[in-house]
């Protein structure tokens, strides 16, 4: 297993380099002037010499390839640079906002697993009944509905009395109080719960016809004991794979969710940085997100052996 882990970590290096290059090219080609964003209203009154000094201070007067090598070398040393606009190290921006994004992602994942896994199991056990059709219809709606639309509907019906019930705050972080986290977590986890429900149902039905399940039932074990102890354990590998892949969806969905609910996470930082063409923040936060995605997928691969001991790493 150690050789497998080392090989995967070695493959992560060119992956992250490719991500860095794509992000740098896209941020360089984006329309807008970062010098104008840094100077604000004073840009219009500033003389060309002042604008040139700001441009030189930020290193934007160098050719694109010089800027690329400078960013790449600095990132390789673990230095993500300073924000053009916030005038603080990018690692401090990530250090402040990532725990809040992680908190939101954990809430979304909790909702997704708590709703999707039981729904998939029940749908498989009640195949072709009205329960199965209802759960799969809801799952289809959950998969098809965009996150921003879910967020708008949730705010319309669950935050005020005019169209629904005022159960949750409209937006904000609220100092980390749990009540502020519930609605964004529900919105973020709904799409993933629908995917998990559909995958769980398919995998449970596939495993149900295996000989060892028939043998377990022939021994006189109760139906739910067979399902939970034998069928579910062997059906979990594709479900775990989907959960690992959907970590990327949770990070992408958090951008929309944090913006709609005014949540102070990395997603809002990325949106604000793109609006201001704050290249160090864009590069740092997206590269950090890519690193998290690669790490989570490696951990998911390693859990396969725990779920199914027949899996070996070579």
UniProtKB/TrEMBL annotation:
<dbReference type="InterPro" id="IPR035906">
    <property type="entry name" value="MetI-like_sf"/>
</dbReference>
<keyword id="KW-1133">Transmembrane helix</keyword>
<feature type="transmembrane region" description="Helical">
    <location>
        <begin position="102"/>
        <end position="123"/>
    </location>
</feature>
<keyword id="KW-1003">Cell membrane</keyword>
<comment type="similarity">
    <text>Belongs to the binding-protein-dependent transport system permease family.</text>
</comment>
<feature type="transmembrane region" description="Helical">
    <location>
        <begin position="135"/>
        <end position="158"/>
    </location>
</feature>
<feature type="transmembrane region" description="Helical">
    <location>
        <begin position="235"/>
        <end position="261"/>
    </location>
</feature>
<keyword id="KW-0472">Membrane</keyword>
<keyword id="KW-0813">Transport</keyword>
<dbReference type="InterPro" id="IPR000515">
    <property type="entry name" value="MetI-like"/>
</dbReference>
<feature type="transmembrane region" description="Helical">
    <location>
        <begin position="9"/>
        <end position="30"/>
    </location>
</feature>
<feature type="domain" description="ABC transmembrane type-1">
    <location>
        <begin position="98"/>
        <end position="304"/>
    </location>
</feature>
<dbReference type="InterPro" id="IPR045621">
    <property type="entry name" value="BPD_transp_1_N"/>
</dbReference>
<dbReference type="Pfam" id="PF19300">
    <property type="entry name" value="BPD_transp_1_N"/>
</dbReference>
<dbReference type="Pfam" id="PF00528">
    <property type="entry name" value="BPD_transp_1"/>
</dbReference>
<protein>
    <submittedName>
        <fullName>ABC transporter permease</fullName>
    </submittedName>
</protein>
<feature type="transmembrane region" description="Helical">
    <location>
        <begin position="281"/>
        <end position="307"/>
    </location>
</feature>
<feature type="transmembrane region" description="Helical">
    <location>
        <begin position="178"/>
        <end position="199"/>
    </location>
</feature>
<keyword id="KW-0812">Transmembrane</keyword>
């Amino acid at each position: 297993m150690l050789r497998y882990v080392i090989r995967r970590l070695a493959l992560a290096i060119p992956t992250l380099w490719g991500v860095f290059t794509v992000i740098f090219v896209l941020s360089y080609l984006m329309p807008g002037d970062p010098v104008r964003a840094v100077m604000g209203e004073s840009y219009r009154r500033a003389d060309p010499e002042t604008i040139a000094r700001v441009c030189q201070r930020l290193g934007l007067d160098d050719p694109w390839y010089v800027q690329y090598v400078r960013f790449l070398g600095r990132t390789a040393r673990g230095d993500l640079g300073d924000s053009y606009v916030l005038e603080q190290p990018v690692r401090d921006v990530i250090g402040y906002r990532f725990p809040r994004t992680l908190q939101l992602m954990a809430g979304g994942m909790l909702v997704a697993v708590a709703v999707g896994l039981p729904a998939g199991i029940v749908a498989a056990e009640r195949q072709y009944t009205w329960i199965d059709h209802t759960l799969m219809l809801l799952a289809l709606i959950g998969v098809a509905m965009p996150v921003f639309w879910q967020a708008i509907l949730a705010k319309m019906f669950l935050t005020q009395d005019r169209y629904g019930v005022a159960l949750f705050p409209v937006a904000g972080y609220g100092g980390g109080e749990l009540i502020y986290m519930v609605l964004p977590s529900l919105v973020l986890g709904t799409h993933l719960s629908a995917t998990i429900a559909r995958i769980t149902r398919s995998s449970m039905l596939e495993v149900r016809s295996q000989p060892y399940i028939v043998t377990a039932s022939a021994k006189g074990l109760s139906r739910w004991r067979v399902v939970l102890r034998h069928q579910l354990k062997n059906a979990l590998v594709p479900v775990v794979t989907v959960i690992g892949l959907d970590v990327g969806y949770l990070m992408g969905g958090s951008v929309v969710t944090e913006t709609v609910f005014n949540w102070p996470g990395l997603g809002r930082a990325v949106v604000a940085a793109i609006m201001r063409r704050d290249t160090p923040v864009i590069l740092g936060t997206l590269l950090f997100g890519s690193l998290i995605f690669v790490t989570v997928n490696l951990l998911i691969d390693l859990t396969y052996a725990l779920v199914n001991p027949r899996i070996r790493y070579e």
